[in-house]
Amino acid sequence: MAKRDYYEVLGVSRDSSDAEFKKAYRRLAMKYHPDRNENNADAEVKFKEAKEAYDVLSDSQKRQIYDQYGHAGIEQQGGFSSQGNGDFGDVFGDIFGSGSHGGQNRAYRGADLQYNLELSLEEAVFGTDAKIDISSRQSCETCSGSGAEPGTSMENCETCGGVGQVRMQQGFFSIQQPCPKCRGRGKVITNPCGHCRGAGTVEKPRTLSVKVPGGVDTGDRIRLANEGEAGENGGPAGDLYVQVSVKQHPIFKRDGAHLHCEIPIGFVTAALGGEVEIPTLDGKINLKIPAETQTGKQFRMRDKGVKPVRGGAQGDMFVHVLTETPVSLTKQQKELLQELNTSLLASGKKHSPKSQGWGDGVKSFFEDLKFWSD
To answer: How many CB atoms lie within 10 A of CB 35?
Structure first.
């Protein structure tokens, strides 16, 4: 299989700096290192690929050859070497431990977790204290996280002699790698803990209290520090991120800090005016409807919206009026409406200016159409 472009492997551009090469390699090495991907052949391939790419691109001379001749130029120079660049050792040591000693003292931070929390609109706007149930791997209490049966201890790894790393010979070059038997710890468990079976962690259900601040919206995250997976070898626990999702409300629609709602009114109220009772998140209020209000008319209720969680002015509530056509009319009601309609038509255009304007526009359209067709 053809090799991938080294710049593509590290995810950097051709004009990136040495610091950017180092940062990109560090990220990939952390992700695909064998210590974190036991028995994962794909991760091992990607780890070696990243090492090779960094070795070439971090060496100005090799990089120049690669830019000019590609992989063929590097192969003619004898391939890559993990010993060829002094900075490589620094990066490797920063990520996986300091030098060839003390591998067993390396600590790993626990994995972060995510929990999806669904809230009502009222809970999101005013805030709430939510109880959530999660299950995560926590330090085994029986062995205090060591993985060894209480009363026993870990022993030095025979393969690496307790240093956590071994040297592999590749042609003329010697490459130092984490010990495959102890995975870089330097020690092995000969008598595993019966409770966690040597893992040092066990799956535990927990109930946590989450203080949700007022003003949160869908997509916001609340971080609970050190509530994620337990760390390894004394490393800190990861964090728990609570992802907020706000349920659809039967009355209100939220738009950032603003709220919208639709209010149906009778056509008599729309024509003559009046007052209607409308809901807000704070309770009911009366809204004055002026005479001759049309469907779609919008009323703005200031400071009846949402106070943003990150600060700023409180939003408003927008009330959209919908004039409701009466249904299930009696014979008498239909006669009265017909009488009203006759009276309105007899008075001319003044009662229906929009209908008359629309009708004039339609008439003009067809007249223009007839002119062009003739």
So the answer is: 21
Burial of 147 (0-12, 13-18, 19+ CB in 10 A): buried
Please report which confidence band the pLDDT of residue 82 belongs to, taking 50, 70 and 90 as the band edges: very low
For residue 348, the SS3 value is coil
**Euclidean distance between CA atoms 271 and 289, whole angstroms:** 9
Letter string b/e over residues 204-219, b meaning 16 or more CB atoms within 10 A of that residue's CB: eeeeeebebeebbbee
pLDDT value, residue 16? 86
134-to-140, 141, 319 alpha-carbon distances in Å: 17, 19, 40
**pLDDT tens digit string along 151-162?**
888 888 888 888
CATH tag for 104-150+197-247 (out of 1.10.10.10, 2.60.260.20, 3.30.930.10, 2.60.120.260)? 2.60.260.20
- Predicted TM-score of the model (pTM): 0.59
> Domain spans of the chain?
6-96, 104-150+197-247, 155-188, 253-348
The per-residue pLDDT of the chain, averaged, comes to: 82
Query: Beta 253-255 vs 155-156: how paired, if at all?
Result: unpaired
What does the block give as tokens for 113?
Answer: 């977790």
What b-and-e string marks burial along 167-198, b requiring 16 or more CB atoms within 10 Å of the CB?
Answer: eeeeeeeeebbbbeebbbbbbbbeebbeebeb
**Architecture of the 6-96 domain:** Orthogonal Bundle (1.10)
Separation between Cα atoms, residue 72 and residue 69, nearest integer Å = 6
Question: Residue 311 — φ and ψ, nearest 5°?
Answer: 95, 170
DSSP annotation string for 85-145:
-HHHHHHHHHHH-STTS-GGG--BPPPPEEEEEEE-HHHHHH-EEEEEEEEEEEE-TTTTT
Interior CA angle at 301 toward 295 and 303, to 5°?
Answer: 155
